[in-house]
Amino acid sequence: MKKIAKEILLPISSIFLAFLVGAVIIKVSGRSPFLAYQSLLMGGFGSLGNLAQTCLFSIPLIFTGLSVALAYKCGLFNIGGEGQFLLGGLFAMAAAIYIHAPFIIHFPLCLLCGFAGGAVAGAIPGWLKARYGIHEVINTIMLNWICLNFVTYIVNGPMRSHSGLGTPEPLKTAVPPLIIPDSLIPGNQLNIGFIIAIIFVLLVGFYLSRTVQGYELKAVGLNPMAAEYGGISISKNIFLALCLAGGLSGLGGTFYYLGDLGRIPSTLSFPGYGFEGIAVALVGKLDPLGVFLASLLFGALESGGIFMQLNANVPKDLVTIIQGLVIIFVIAPGLVQSVFNWYRGKKEREGFEYS
Amino acid sequence: MNILSVGRDFIATTFRLSTPIIFAALGGVISERSGVVNIGLEGMMLLGAFGATVGTYYTHNPFIGLLTGALAGGLAAALHALLSIHFKADQIVSGVAINMLALGATNYLLLLLFQTAGNSPAVLTIPWKIFAASALILPFVLHYFLYRTPVGLRIRAVGEHPKAADTAGINVFFVRYCCVIISGILAGIGGAYLSISLLNRFTRDMSAGTGFIALAAVIFGKWTPIGALGAGLFFGLAYALQFILPGILPHGMKIPPEFFNSLPYLLTMIVLVGAIGKAIPPASDGIPYDPKESR
């Protein structure tokens, strides 16, 4: 129990500090931090509808967060979530538009294609790292942009719909069905992706902690030389880890474009989930369950941010600032420590003055 | 349209598009030469562009705007330096955080200061040729500085082998702090060029990947100032091509603009494989220096 408390102390205090700095920013902007955070909370969790929205926004984050965490376990930094997300979405969308089959075949096939699309974008830097030893960070960044350009080209060229808004809508048999009927929570869009995301949280957790393959992957991450000495192939595991990581991000894109948006829009930019996945993975301490909880928090920020802008007149971009701040605090435990030390010292100094 | 004016337009466009890449790439070179990876170039450019617009808007003097833009980039870099040098945080993640913060902060302030989510009001500008000329001269100055002066030698020593540099009496932390902050200032100037020279206003997410192209230029130019200049010009040329090709290509032939947009990234991946000569980063690039660690 004490160990768990120690483990989550840094993420919790980082989130706390990020919100504190956020409050200062709101205050300096001449708005009320209290009202802003109240609306943020209400928007994220205030009603069943908002809660459903939070869960919906957390789906892509769970996948990209798992993607970053899995790669990290193998000692790899997957910064290519954006590109894998886009390419996965494109593959899934192609399957959703051009293949005709009953739901029970069509929908799983779309997921498979989405996974494959992401895995392709992960396999390239994986292969380059395994074969040539080129740092995956550079190649994943480069691939983000190549994927963005490639998907933009396809969406505005071969896959362009007559409406000009982007790709056509996916066939009915490929759309992820809603979990909660509309009559229960009107207007909710929460689809089955949330349940599948939870299944993947469990799957990745099981894979990493209970299978031989997962053990090998972690061994390479912890100490590649020792792993190799023990008969574990470094290059095989590096390649595999980035393929799987890419596939996970690709699934995130699948649910985002098939479910949330219902098409890939023609004016395409980075959806941002790949980068937020890094934050989610770090806040979640690279643990699948942690990733899940962190995704819910970030999902709530996204769904509450819109509410906050309307209610408290605080631009919803504050959410991005808070997310960035959370990362900063999580990666610099020394910074968090010194902030708390400073606060404690200040209290003590004040105490001396009064006595 | 005669061939001469087409050629002149083409060269001008190349220089106009290369300039921001060169500035930010030079920043990347100096930071990475001292051993600190700077993925945050993109965010620093964005902040530079915004800082320049705000400075110009309130003072009606674009040269003060240039200063505020450089300052904004430098401040973001100071944060990156604090995190990655002092707190030994992961430099790549720190860069990602800087990019997120920059995007959030500029959009937040855009709405707060100008009540818009899109474009800031128009501001005064500086002629682009001033920037372009500096971008052509600066790499040679930096080259001389890095390879012909004692300070430059120290910077490179810190990036290659900080322990040895420390033993020789060089303050590793100080050198790295300075280099990272200069890197942010250069990226900030590159960003300022976008908003108060190339355009006359700030637009949402206006750096749009230029910082990442600069990162590619750092690698493509093999971590040298002259190389960064060459890479920057080459990438600018690739961009300029897409504006000029439709007029030159035979009727009906079309190369999608996305291909040209991808070219810098594709070429960088190819150069890393070693197809166009080996690209080797400074030995201690990306590794935080801990004086207590024996290496």
- For the largest interface in this structure, which chains are involved and how many residues does each contribute? A-B, 43 and 42 residues
Number of strands of chain A: 0
Secondary-structure-derived class of chain B: mainly alpha
Query: Which word captures the global form of chain A?
Result: globular
Beta-strand fraction estimate of chain B: under 5%
What's the N-to-C terminus distance of chain A?
A: 38 Å
Number of domains of chain B: 1
Overview of this protein structure:
- The complex is a heterodimer of chains A (about 350) and B (about 300).
- Chain A has a domain at about 65-175 and about 185-295.
- Chain A contains 14 helices and no strands.
- Chain A has helices at about 1-30, 35-45, 50-75, 80-100, 105-130, 135-155, 195-210, 210-220, 225-230, 235-260, 275-285, 290-310, 320-330, 335-355.
- The two termini of chain A are about 40 Å apart.
- Chain B is mostly helical and about 300 residues long.
- Chain B has one domain: ABC transporter involved in vitamin B12 uptake, BtuC, CATH 1.10.3470.
- Chain B is about 75% helix and about 0% strand.
- Chain B contains eleven helices and no strands.
- Chain B has helices at about 5-35, 40-60, 60-85, 90-115, 130-150, 150-160, 160-165, 170-200, 210-220, 225-250, 255-275.
- At the A-B interface, α6, α11, α13 and α14 of A face α3, α4, α9 and α11 of B.
Secondary structure layout:
The complex is a heterodimer of chains A (355) and B (295).
Chain A: H1 2-28, H2 33-45, H3 48-73, H4 81-98, H5 103-132, H6 136-156, H7 193-210, H8 212-222, H9 224-229, H10 234-261, H11 273-283, H12 288-312, H13 318-331, H14 333-354
Helix pairs in contact in A: 1-2, 1-13, 2-3, 2-12, 3-7, 3-10, 3-11, 3-12, 4-5, 4-6, 4-10, 4-11, 5-6, 5-10, 7-8, 7-12, 8-10, 11-12, 11-13
Chain B: H1 3-33, H2 41-59, H3 62-86, H4 91-114, H5 128-148, H6 150-160, H7 162-167, H8 172-198, H9 210-220, H10 225-248, H11 257-273
